[in-house]
Amino acid sequence: MSLAGSVFTRKTIEFNAEGTMLRGWLYIPSSHDAKLPVIVMAHGYGSLKEMHLDTFAEKFAENGFAVLVYDNRNFGDSDGYPRQEINPQDQIFDYQHAITYVSSLQFIDNSRIGIWGSSYSGGHVIVVGAIDKRVKCVVSQVPTISGSQAALRRLPAEKIEKLLESFYLDRQNRMNGLEPVRKKLVPEHENDTGIYSNPDAVQWYLEAGKRSPNWVNEVTIRSIEHSRHYEPGQFISMLSPTPLLMLVAKNDTITPTDLALAAYEDAYEPKDLKIFEGHHFSPYVEKFEEYSEAALDWFIKHLKNNEKVKV
Questions:
Q1: Is the N end or the C end of the chain the one with fewer CB atoms within 10 Å?
Q2: What's the chain look like in SS3?
Q3: With contact defined as beta carbons under 8 Å apart, do 48 and 212 qualify?
Q4: What's the number of CA atoms in the CB half-sphere (13 Å) around residue 18?
Q5: Which of 122, 61, 65, 115 is nearest to 247 (CA)?
Q6: What is the rounded distance in angstroms from the CA atom of residue 66 to the CA atom of residue 35?
């Protein structure tokens, strides 16, 4: 499938991530005389590319960037098992596989590769930018900084023992050949429970999920276990000299604002920080113009020598 726009074409693509096929879209500006800078993008916790990543990608493509957007392994159009399982280390490696894929395309300028991530993948791009110096520019939107610190705030102490028991039971089930235990991301009905019960989270997932035919409102229990000891903030001081833009929501309780601001202080130049009114899910619709424009300006500055396309 291809989607023709006024200034770009969107093609459905797939690439091999060491035996697992990942699938997504490649946006290519319609007219270009030289090799293109490229931005690699993936979504956050349990989300798919149709859940507003297309609007960011279109904005970047309209301004002369090739853009690769793909579904994380085990989700959406991409292969992988167990389905609905989020392993942050695998997702980090897959960003690197995606970079390798775009680097193989003849019309891509390998010296101008940027990466963009939001929420969980906002943490991933910090790690990838620190360890993979093919990356020349990073935009980290409302990022996960410390899984352990966030977990302490999300769950009362008296409920931790029961959660840990669920992890161990799931491991026992897997050893016995049973399917992984899964839990809803957000409640769908009055008596439901979910990983997130925050009204903003519930509204966003259920509404954004309608944009994707493949979205499933659940992740494996092990995904929660992985998230509780995921610490991308530990890599932020190793990013330099790769330029980092961090985009933070002023009232973020999902990936807490104060953790992002503290991590930013640990980053070295070149770096920049933008703080916007709103909550964790504001960037995708309500504050889309502010967040996308800030990201675009950063990519233009560091990948296109301040050349902005007027559309």
A1: N
A2: CEEECCCEEEEEEEEEECCEEEEEEEEEECCCCCCEEEEEEECCCCCCCCCCHHHHHHHHHHCCCEEEEECCCCCCCCCCCCCCCCCHHHHHHHHHHHHHHHHCCCCEEEEEEEEEEECHHHHHHHHHHHHCCCEEEEEEECCCCCHHHHHHHHCCHHHHHHHHHHHHHHHHHHHCCCCCCEECCCCCCCCCCCCCCCHHHHHHHHHHHCCCCCCCCCEEHHHHHHHCCCCHHHHHHHCCCCCEEEEEECCCCCCCHHHHHHHHHHCCCCEEEEEECCCCCHHHCCCHHHHHHHHHHHHHHHHCCCCCCCC
A3: yes
A4: 8
A5: 122
A6: 10
User: Which residue(s) pair with 246 in the sheet?
Assistant: 140, 273
Q: How far apart are CA 2 and CA 5, in angstroms?
A: 10
Task: Compute the distance between CA of residue 64 and CA of residue 302 in angstroms, rounded to an integer.
Answer: 14
List, run by run, the mean pLDDT of 10-residue segments along the chain (311 residues): 68 98 97 89 98 98 97 98 98 98 97 98 98 98 96 84 93 95 94 92 97 97 96 98 98 97 98 98 98 98 71 39
Using CA atoms, how far apart are residues 128 and 148, in angstroms rounded to an integer?
20
25 forms beta bridges with 12, 69
Q: What confidence tens digit (pLDDT) does each residue in 6-63 have?
A: 799 999 999 999 999 999 999 999 977 689 999 999 999 999 999 999 999 999 999 9
Q: What is the pTM of this model?
A: 0.95
Rounded to whole angstroms, how far apart are CA atoms 210 and 179?
26
Q: What's the residue count for the chain?
A: 311
What single letter denotes the amino acid at residue 296?
L
In this structure, are residues 195 and 228 in contact, taking their beta carbons and an 8 Å threshold?
no
Q: How far apart are CA 297 and CA 303, in angstroms?
A: 10
Rounded CA gap, 4 and 68, in Å? 16
